[in-house]
Each structure stands twice: as structure tokens, then as C-alpha cells.
Design goal:
The complex is a heterotrimer of chains A (322), B (292) and C (257). By secondary structure, chain A is an all-alpha fold. Helices cover 72% and strands 0% of the residues of chain A. Chain A has one domain: ABC transporter involved in vitamin B12 uptake, BtuC, CATH 1.10.3470. Classes of the chains: A mainly alpha (322), B mainly alpha (292), C alpha/beta (257).
Chain lengths: 322, 292, 257
């Protein structure tokens, strides 16, 4: 990144870093942590949906796998907590490799159904394998995040926020490096025109698998952070509700961009809170938002902002070509 | 005694399976004619069950009448759903349409939670309580009703598509949409009709199977998945295939749940869909007519 | 001149219909070879077999001495065979420059690890890629169009862009699928020029074409396919007068547009 965009990015990171100090309200700080974690998860799904152009209906399963892995590693085998997210990423990525290897042979709606099936199987297994996962009761009293000898209290939202933010920035950097590289060009080619991509030497299957594994690994890390922050996890993390939430974040925010998932996560977390009184009506609002974006604003909120900016730069009547 | 238990499981599975077949036939029709993979299909099943519940408990109309009302009402809702969620996206990429159907599914499921409440409902009909003795087997009348009505509807659908004018228009639109339009078929009307028909079938399934189980706003989610599994097993566009696939799935689940474990019962459907899709990688919706 | 591409008894059947029937043909390095024949003769099937988008039922294909029979499209491309498509195939949403940049995929190796770690090798690779994109765009005469979205281009430029993308892969053999389709005589003449320039760059060319003026104007050698069989082969002038060739084109004008 050169010039203006780089400065903007650094400025954004600075603002995000300062954010928790702007308010003493512990609840707002809690929301910030949730936003950062969801943003990381949305970013990971965006790799599959936005960059590869495939719709995965099973993404929440990898998020759940990451959460359970990190929790169990810390609680059953005494693995230091700070190592958890990384190991969770490896495990989730391994699942992603196996499932992707099998599922990516077929693309389009069939892939969506297949991932829905795999996600449902993982959900069921997690629910019934009580010896390992404690079944529907879930795992509670998960140790909070800790940096080993460094004595910082990560049950406090403000401190946890920085951990989550660090992973988020890492995730953003990974996505940016990925998409500005030769590998990223292959992703776009495979999304836009698979037969043309093959004709210039791109192995479509391996490219998609590559992206899928990266996405699942990142979501595994996010799951680990979620577990160590909320301290309770259940198999419901792998349910359709979470899948829908992640899809909504990516689509409403703007798929195929880095800022999109961040905005989507912000919208989701904010509305979830603001509309808390409305109960199940909240979910109806989310569904309506999703559908409205799909039909009227396919590029999400990011595209809206882009459109407004273009209109301000070129104040001619709309006869000008886009 | 063992055989009786076995036979009991088979009959229960058969009833469930018939419910699946109705769902699957609707799904396959919608894909064949409209080329839409409709994730919201299960929600119409859910609506059918809820409508039946409210019509019988609030309006006091008898169960059979409620069945008809629910089916017709949900079919009408289907017309609107198609109009607002799919018709505007006619020319879009299948990815977009799939997302739209997801949005519709979420709207319907969560809307149901909001409107009807999250507490489970139980549809009470006298058929669920009264039983029939078939030899040593004891079968509830409801289950027999499910099997009977479903068989009639499936046969009727088959006949309808093969022999009536609208049915032939549906076939034509499915095989070659542009060609069909060129011969003067109003494909928009055929689409709306087919979609409504499919939703009606799903609603009927929900209304029939509803009394045999607990009803919540989430039943639509697994209903649509069962539908996909059956379509995969039976082959696209094949009503007889859906019949066999649905019955097979219902019985397999019932036996699996009875003899192995409840978890197995849930997982077996998903496992089947994965295995079949792997074995037939051209996928669920390969069009056999050899286009392109 | 050694054969860059060689087929032996290459066959493709669809059920009972034999579309390509035991064809032996070769393309020598540095040649421009034309593949012609009436509609339904099997040239498109043969072309697809060579490009790897279809698997042969029997026979072999060798490229640069190595057996590549049945290789899928991306492996053929990795060997150095690039192709264009009959119906214009681009990345319509991407800018022209990005379209060409994607084409350079097989010529480089540094992936996102390099981008992640910001290695010097990666930065240099990207510089080289950008330079190559500009060079190729200039070569096809679209130098000023680098930032336009591909879908905004007129038809003729889109066809040029297709060729640019294929060239970006630095192929040894370029397969052109009806490159002159939809072109007027003026554009056809410019196409002939471009194909010659491509050969001057060191790329061997095989093209399937209906426009005889283009074929006669640019090909060193022509192979004629009829009903799945090789009917004739030779320099254009000889083939044009071959009675067998005239027979299979019976009733058709040999030169159109």
C-alpha cells in the first residue's frame, strides 16, 4: 500500500486503538470486543463469499470448532491460553482442508447445500459426543485469555479488546496481502470466469481449496477468542442462526472488500443491541436488511458509500456513464 | 415381538417419508421450471403447520377443512413470495437468487417466531389420538392419513404434469424457457403457478405431519434440508424418484433412530446427501437435457 | 523443424457419433497453422481436445516431446499452451490492465507469503508483471485503455484483449478459436498483421477459422477437417484447389466477407 490509502489505514488503526479510552462505559467496551471478534469472523467468511465467490452455509461450524478446540486444550491439557487461537486456527483449518477437499469439487448451490450438510453434521456430533464436548450443556468456566507471565486481566473488556483488535488487524493484513498478491489474482480469476482462469494455467480446485482453508483457519482463531472472552460455549455456535448472522454481516457490509465485513459486523452488533427490546423482531429486521441488500444493493453498504463519493466528485446529471 | 417393533418403525418411517416426498416434489418442480434453489421452501411447510394449528384451535374448523385452507392460503403467499423475492432477480446470477431465498427463509422463520411465539405448539386432531389396528401393528389414524393423502397428491401431481395443459406448459418451460416463451407460453404465469403449487405441497406436508410432532418456528430449517436430500437421492425432475427417495429416507431414519441412536437419526440424512453428492459430482441439479 | 504439437490417431466419440476420427496432425515450432472445415466437421471438438477442455476417447497428444494426452485445461496452460474462446471470454468487471495481469499467473511463482512478508522478490515480481502488462497492451494496440473496465470495450477491442490475456501467459503455442468472427475486412487485415507479429515474438499459432481471406492470408499451412477426418493438408493455395476440399465445401463460397 502506498501513499494516501496507507495513511488512511494507519489512521484508522490509531482511532480503533484509542476507542476504548473514549468511554468509561463497560458495556460499550463489551460491544467493542464483540465487534472486533465478529469482524474477524466476517472477514474470514468474506474470503469464501467475496473473494472466491462461493456461498458457504457451514462457516459457523469452523468458528465453533475453534472455540471448542481452544477451550478444551486449555482446560483438559493445560495448554497456555495465548497459544489457543493459533492451535484453534490449525485445527479449524485442518477441518476446512478435509471438508473443502470434498465439497469444492462441486460449486454453486450444490456447494452451499453440501456445506450446510457438513455444518449440520458437525453440529449434531458436537451435540451428541457428550464425553468430549459436554453435549448441549456446553462448556463453561473457560479460562480467560492470558499472556502467561504478563499479569494483565483479560476478563476486562478493555484489555480483551486489544487482543481481539490485534487479531483483527492481523486478519486484515493477511487478507490485504492475499488479495494484492498473485494468489489473490487467481482467486478473482476463479470467481469471475473459471474456464478462462483454467486456460491461463490456474488450477481452479486448488485455488478455491487454498482460500477455503485460510478462511476456516481464521474463523477458528476467532472462535477461540470468543470462547475465552464469553467463557461459555455451546453447540449452538454451529447453528444456522450463526451462519445466517455471518452471511448477513458480509453481504450487508459489502462482500469482496476489507471494510465491508467490518461495517457489517458493526451494523450487526449495534442493531442487536439497539433493538434488544424488540425481541425476535430483531432477527426479522436483519433478514429484511439482507434481502434488501441482495435485491437493491448487491455491493452492500460499502458500495453505497462509494456511489455517494462518486456522485460528489462528478456533479453532472446521471447521464454520465458509471 | 421383534418383528412387530420393526414393522412399527417402518410404518412410522413411511409416514415421515411421505411428508418428505411432498416437500421434495415441490422443490424439484421449482428448480426444474424456475431454475431456483429455494432455501425458503421449508418455511412454507412450517407455515402450513402453523395455519392448520390456528385454524383448528381459533376458528374451530375441523382438521380436514383446515388442511385445505392452510394449503390454499400458503400457496397464495407463495405467489407473493415469488413476486417479490425471485421475479426481480430473474436475470441475476444463481448466487444472488440463493441469497435472496436465504433472506426469505430468515424472514419467514423469524417472522413466525415473532408472530406466533417461540413456545412449541401442538396441533390437536382426533386422528392423532385414534388408532387403527393392522394385524399386530397399532397405527395412528394420522399417520395413515399422511400416507394416503400424500400418495393421492403425488399421483395427482404426476398426472397433472403429464396430461394437463398447464402441466405441459410447465414441462416446456422447464426444458427450454426461451423456446417456450416463443411459442406463446406466458412463462411468468407458469412460474407463479408452479411456485404456488410447490408451496401448497409443502404446506400440505406441514399440515399433515404437524400433528405427529411438536411445532416450532424452526421446523422449516430441517424440512428444506430433508427435501434436498430426497431430491438428491431421487434425481432431479423425477417424481417417482422423489417417492422412492423420500420413503427410503424416512424408513432409514426411523430404523436408525430406533436401533442405533437419536444422534444417528439426525446425522444419517446429512451423511446421505454428502455421499450422494460426492458420488454424483455433477451434482444435485445437473440438467439431463444436455444443454451446452 | 521439430513438431511442437503432435497428435496421433486422436479420436473423440460422443456415444455413437465419432466427432474426431483418428487424426494425425502436427504443428511445427514457429509455424502458423490453420484448421478449417465446414460446420459440424469436428474442428471445434479437435480444438477443445488440444486445449484440454475435453478428454480424447483414444489416441495421443504430445507437446514439446512430452505426452500430454488427457491433460485438463490448466495443465495444458501450465505447459505453455494458451487459447482464446469462440465466445468472447474475459473478466468483464475488471479493468483491462487487471485482465492482462491475471494472465501472467503461470509466469511467476511468488505467492502471498511473499506479499505477507514483503520480500524484495515479491516487490520485484510485481514490478516485472506491471511492466509486462504495459508491454502487451501496447503490442495489441490498447496502450491507453489500461484502466477501462473490460465490459466497456467495443467488440473488436474485447477480442484483442482476449489475445492479450493469452499472450500474458508467455505461451509457446497459441490456439485461436475463430479470432476473425464478427470482423469486417479491415479488421480482418489488422488481425492478420497481429498474428504475424505474434509469430515474430516466438509464439507458434494454431487457429480455427471460417474467414478464408484471413486463413489464406496468414497461414503457412492449412489442415482441412471433414466429418471428423483429415481431408487435406498443405500450403493454402494448394489446399484451396484440392478437389476433395472443394467437394466437402460444396455449395459454399470459399471466401466470405
Amino acid at each position: 500500500m502506498k501513499g494516501a490509502p496507507r495513511i488512511q489505514a494507519l489512521a484508522a488503526v490509531a482511532v480503533l486503538a484509542v476507542l476504548p479510552w473514549l468511554t468509561g462505559n463497560a458495556f460499550l467496551q463489551h460491544m467493542m470486543v464483540l465487534w472486533a471478534i465478529y469482524a474477524l469472523l466476517a472477514l474470514s467468511l468474506n474470503i469464501i463469499v467475496g473473494y472466491l465467490g462461493e456461498l458457504s452455509f457451514g462457516h459457523a461450524a469452523f468458528f465453533g470448532i475453534g472455540a471448542y478446540t481452544s477451550a478444551l486444550l486449555a482446560m483438559q491439557w493445560g495448554v497456555p491460553v495465548w497459544l489457543g487461537p493459533f492451535l484453534a486456527a490449525v485445527v479449524a483449518g485442518a477441518f476446512g482442508l478435509v471438508i473443502g477437499f470434498v465439497a469444492l469439487r462441486i460449486v454453486g448451490p450444490q456447494f452451499a447445500i453440501l456445506t450446510l450438510g457438513f455444518g449440520a453434521i458437525l453440529h449434531t456430533v458436537t451435540n451428541y459426543w457428550v464425553d468430549l464436548t459436554r453435549g448441549p450443556m456446553g462448556i463453561s468456566n473457560i479460562p480467560p485469555f492470558s499472556l502467561g507471565p504478563i499479569a494483565l486481566d483479560f476478563t476486562q473488556a478493555r484489555n480483551m479488546y486489544y487482543v481481539a483488535l490485534a487479531f483483527l488487524v492481523g486478519g486484515i493484513y493477511i487478507c490485504h496481502a492475499l488479495m494484492t498478491s498473485r494468489r489473490g489474482r487467481a482467486f478473482v480469476a476463479v470467481r469471475e470466469n473459471p474456464s478462462l482462469a483454467a486456460s491461463i494455467g490456474i488450477d481452479v480446485f486448488r485455488t478455491k481449496l487454498h482460500g477455503f482453508v485460510v478462511a476456516t483457519a481464521i474463523s477458528g482463531a476467532g472462535g477461540a477468542l470468543y470462547g475465552h472472552y464469553l467463557r461459555v460455549i455451546t453447540p449452538e455456535l454451529m447453528s444456522l442462526q450463526y451462519v445466517a448472522a455471518l452471511i448477513i454481516m458480509v453481504i450487508v457490509g459489502g462482500k469482496g472488500t476489507i471494510v465491508g465485513p467490518l461495517i457489517g459486523a458493526l451494523v450487526y452488533v449495534s442493531l442487536l443491541e439497539l433493538l434488544r427490546a424488540a425481541g425476535p423482531l430483531r432477527l426479522v429486521v436483519f433478514a429484511a436488511l439482507l434481502t434488501a441488500c441482495v435485491i437493491f444493493l448487491p455491493g452492500g453498504l460499502v458500495s453505497l458509500w462509494r456511489r455517494l463519493r462518486e456522485r460528489r466528485q462528478a456533479p453532472e446529471p446521471s447521464g454520465a456513464p458509471a | 415381538m421383534e418383528i412387530v417393533v420393526f414393522a412399527q418403525q417402518v410404518v412410522n418411517g413411511l409416514a415421515n417419508g411421505m411428508g418428505y416426498v411432498l416437500i421434495a416434489v415441490g422443490l424439484t418442480l421449482v428448480f426444474g421450471v424456475l431454475r431456483i434453489v429455494n432455501f425458503a421452501h421449508g418455511e412454507f411447510y412450517m407455515l402450513g403447520a402453523y395455519f392448520t394449528y390456528y385454524v383448528t384451535s381459533l376458528a374451530g374448523i375441523d382438521y380436514l377443512g383446515a388442511l385445505v385452507i392452510a394449503t390454499v392460503a400458503v400457496a397464495a403467499i407463495g405467489v407473493f413470495a415469488n413476486q417479490f423475492f425471485f421475479r426481480p432477480l430473474r436475470k441475476e446470477h444463481e448466487f444472488t437468487i440463493l441469497l435472496s431465498s436465504l433472506g426469505l427463509a430468515l424472514l419467514m422463520a423469524n417472522g413466525a417466531e415473532y408472530l406466533f411465539g417461540a413456545d412449541p405448539k401442538y396441533v390437536n386432531t382426533r386422528y392423532a389420538d385414534e388408532t387403527v389396528d393392522i394385524g399386530p401393528l397399532v397405527v395412528t389414524q394420522q399417520r395413515l392419513l399422511v400416507i394416503a393423502v400424500a400418495l393421492v397428491m403425488i399421483a395427482g401431481t404426476y398426472w397433472f404434469i403429464r396430461f394437463t395443459r398447464m402441466g405441459k406448459m410447465m414441462q416446456a418451460t422447464a426444458q427450454n424457457p426461451e423456446g417456450a416463451a416463443l411459442t406463446g407460453i406466458n412463462t411468468g404465469f407458469v412460474h407463479a403457478y408452479t411456485f404456488a403449487f410447490a408451496c401448497g405441497l409443502a404446506a400440505l406436508s406441514g399440515a399433515l405431519v404437524g400433528p405427529t410432532a411438536m411445532l416450532t418456528h424452526t421446523v422449516g430449517d430441517w424440512a428444506v434440508l430433508k427435501g434436498f436430500i430426497v431430491v438428491v437421492m431421487g434425481g432431479l425432475g423425477s417424481i417417482t424418484g422423489a417417492l422412492f427417495g423420500g420413503v427410503l429416507l424416512g424408513i432409514a431414519e426411523s430404523l436408525g433412530g430406533g436401533y442405533i441412536s437419536l444422534g444417528f437419526k439426525e446425522a444419517i440424512g446429512y451423511a446421505i446427501i454428502i455421499l450422494v453428492l460426492l458420488w454424483r459430482p455433477q451434482g444435485l441439479f445437473s440438467v439431463g437435457s444436455g444443454r451446452r | 523443424m521439430s513438431a511442437l504439437l503432435e497428435t496421433r490417431k486422436l479420436t473423440r466419440a460422443f456415444g455413437g457419433l465419432v466427432a474426431v476420427n483418428a487424426i494425425d496432425m502436427h504443428v511445427g515450432e514457429g509455424e502458423i497453422v490453420g484448421l478449417i472445415g465446414p460446420n459440424g466437421a469436428g474442428k471445434t471438438t479437435l480444438f477443445n481436445l488440444l486445449a484440454g477442455s475435453m478428454e480424447p476417447s483414444a489416441g495421443t497428444v504430445h507437446f514439446a516431446g512430452g505426452d500430454c494426452t488427457g491433460f485438463p485445461a490448466h495443465r495444458m496452460a501450465q505447459l505453455g499452451v494458451a487459447r482464446t474462446f469462440q465466445i468472447t471470454s474475459l473478466f468483464p468487471e475488471l479493468p483491462v490492465g487487471e485482465n492482462v495481469r491475471v494472465g501472467t499467473f503461470r509466469t511467476k511463482t511468488s505467492g502471498w507469503a511473499g506479499a505477507l512478508l514483503r520480500t524484495r522478490a515479491h516487490a520485484e515480481q510485481e514490478r516485472e508483471v506491471s511492466a509486462r502488462v504495459d508491454e502487451i497492451l501496447a503490442f495489441v494496440g490498447m496502450g491507453g485503455r489500461r484502466d477501462l473496465p473490460a465490459k466497456a470495450l467495443p467488440y473488436g477491442d474485447q477480442r484483442k484483449l482476449e489475445i492479450a490475456i493469452a499472450l500474458a501467459a508467455e505461451p509457446r503455442l497459441l490456439l485461436l478459436d475463430e479470432p476473425a468472427a464478427g470482423m469486417n475486412p479491415d479488421e480482418g487485415a489488422k488481425l492478420v498483421q497481429m498474428i504475424r507479429s505474434i509469430r515474430d515474438r516466438g509464439v507458434t499459432v494454431l487457429l480455427v477459422e471460417h474467414h478464408m481471406r484471413v486463413v489464406m492470408g496468414v497461414c503457412d499451412r492449412v489442415v482441412v477437417i471433414g466429418s471428423g477426418l483429415k481431408v487435406a493438408e498443405g500450403v493454402p493455395a494448394k489446399v484451396a484447389n484440392d478437389p476433395e476440399v472443394i467437394r466437402i465445401y460444396l455449395g459454399r463460397e470459399k471466401v466470405h466477407a
